[in-house]
Amino acid sequence: MSKLLEKTRQILFLTDFELKKLFRQKQGYAGLAVIILLVALCAIGVYLRIYYPPKHVHVPNKFFGQMLKDLVNGVSFSLTVLLPGIYILLPLVVGIFAAGSFAAEFQNGQVRTVSLRSVPRLSIVLAKFIALSFYSYVLLGVMMVISYACGAFMFGATGDILLFGPAFLGKEAGIYIMDGSIAYQRLFLAYFFAGYALLSIVAMFLMFSAIFKKMTMAVVIPMGIYFTSYILGALPFMESLQRFLPTRYIMVWKYTMAQDIMWDAMLSDGIFLGLYTVSYLIIASVIMNTSDL
Amino acid sequence: MSDLAIKARGVRKTYGRFVALKNIDLDVKSGVVYGFLGPNGAGKTTLIKILLGLSIPNDGEVEIFGKDLFLERNTILKSVGAVVEAPAFFEYLTAYENLYHLTRLSGNISREKIEDTLKVVGLEDVAGKNVGAFSYGMKQRLGIANALLPENKLIFLDEPTNGLDPHGILGVRQLIKRLCRESGITVFISSHMLAEVEQVCDYVTIIDKGEKVCEAKVSDLVERQSRIEFKTSDVGKAAEFLRSGNYEIIDERKHHDSSAFILKGHESEIPELARRLVSAGIGILKISRHKDTLEDVFVEITGKNKTDSVSDRF
Ligand SMILES: Nc1ncnc2c1ncn2[C@@H]1O[C@H](COP(=O)(O)OP(=O)(O)OP(=O)(O)O)[C@@H](O)[C@H]1O
Ligand SMILES: [Mg+2]
């Protein structure tokens, strides 16, 4: 019992240490900077689409423009930002931070410095995972707040929202209007499950860090896998391959965008994603345990 | 409990087909400064990593303070500290924060204890500075501080004076001796500097190419052979005299216009030799007992039956 207590205490100390390291590094601001850039570009894009629609649009689309003006607000804007954010930007930022906190520390010897203390190596991996997960949620939270504030300021704070089903749920889904009363709840759910998906990215980068122990390799290889899967998953004639790709489950949050939340699909994707995450962590710990430091 | 701080038996380590350590045995009594000497690539760092459980040997057993390293590593590490190769810290945290977060993992720690230790290694003025702004020597000192905390009884220092200025080297050597004498801490240091081991260590093991070539008490090793050093400018005459007098010349060290002969013989033979040299009309620049340095011993042992060039050995 006291052993368990001591282990928990050590993991807490290590996590605290990791968080301090993450927030102390100036590179933490880099994440903030790219989020602001993304929000700003999205804001300009949406603004131009509403107020200066492309000249070649037909009459029905002009009507659509009016609809946009009425139905875009802080919430829908924030969801618009989440889509490119979770596809590319945050995996990139969180992944590189994960590699930086593990592979780079292997390379520069800090992993050895910590391993010289009386801590099980498993807790070192676990603490990094917990700290980076927390950090991922902080980044997502920041993104949500900034994008909501920006959207609310430019397009209005509340109201019903327009959802482009195809962007989230595939070609079959339609465009529909979501009631303003449930929009907030959906926004929070979408961001929450996007965070859950980021955890698997963190775990994947930690695993490759443990395998390669070099910063460049630990970034290039999982990035390569991620983007390859992502590109292949997007190609129409690769559909039968898609279900085997690890990226398939990363979009678990998209089910919250359906008219009625697709809980069944979300549960099964969520379980697979969780299994991936746990396997990555187990592999990382086993390798860490058997490595010469 | 045994009074051995480190006991290793038959430690063997290979990297692929390369054998880095062959069957190393080691007995380090607690409360001594133990030197581990060898040229670059001899396997010093490899052995230290094994003794700390950072690296797993192919074969062998290690006990630290009577506890099996492979079974009780986490307990052992509560009272063992080390600097292995270059000191690696978290550059964007201050010296104090680094020590605080690292030491906290081994047990309870007080602010005073950390500050005292920073003072011991001479870093009290820069405790609040980010380690990223430290010079290599300052990091090396911080490494020693980290090895000492919280209250470690055994510390491993892998080439601790590497990168230090002469003042720093002196400081670290004095610190090592003081730690051992005043706090009873066992210090295991590796070095390729013979003078260093001679100055600070009580015992030494010499390894070369992963093999132990010698293990001894430093004072015994240095005094092992009694020799006389005799320096003169009448080189030809002296050589002739020594040969005809049946003196055994071990080495002749030529200088600009003089030579120093190293002869076999005890200190007590010096007065007689001096008298005879004077009566033979040979000028004496210097005559004294020749104290073997570890350098002599080292070259003699590791160079024996080897065709390597000198530059290859160092
Ligand atoms: N990870 C590794 N993979 C392969 N070979 C290694 C590895 N680590 C060390 N070696 C080899 O093992 C031998 C001993 O290395 P080690 O670092 O222990 O030497 P050392 O005595 O500490 O030398 P130095 O004085 O240069 O620090 C060297 O020949 C080295 O090339
Ligand atoms: Mg070395």
Based on CA inertia axes, which overall geometry of chain A fits? Answer: elongated
Q: What is the CATH C level class of the largest domain in chain B, in words?
A: Alpha Beta
CATH topology tier name of the largest domain in chain B: Rossmann fold
Kindly report how far apart the N and C termini of chain A lie. 30 Å
- Terminal Cα separation of chain B, in Å? 40 Å
User: What is the percentage of strand-forming residues of chain B?
Assistant: 25-35%
Q: What's the CATH architecture name of the largest domain in chain B?
A: 3-Layer(aba) Sandwich
Low-pLDDT residue spans of chain A? none
Q: In what range is the share of β-strand residues of chain A?
A: under 5%
Enumerate the strands of the largest sheet of chain A in spatial order, edge to edge or round the barrel: 1-2
**Which structural class is indicated by helix and strand composition of chain B?**
alpha/beta
Largest sheet of chain A: 2 strands, antiparallel
Question: Mean pLDDT of chain B, nearest integer?
Answer: 87
**Inertia-based shape of chain B:** elongated
**β-strand number of chain B:** 14
Please give the domain count of chain B: 2
* Discrete helix count of chain A: 11
Give the % helix of chain B: 25-40%
The sequence of SSEs of chain B as H and E is: EEEHEEHEHHHEHEHEEHEHEEHEHH
Task: Give the mean pLDDT of chain A.
Answer: 87
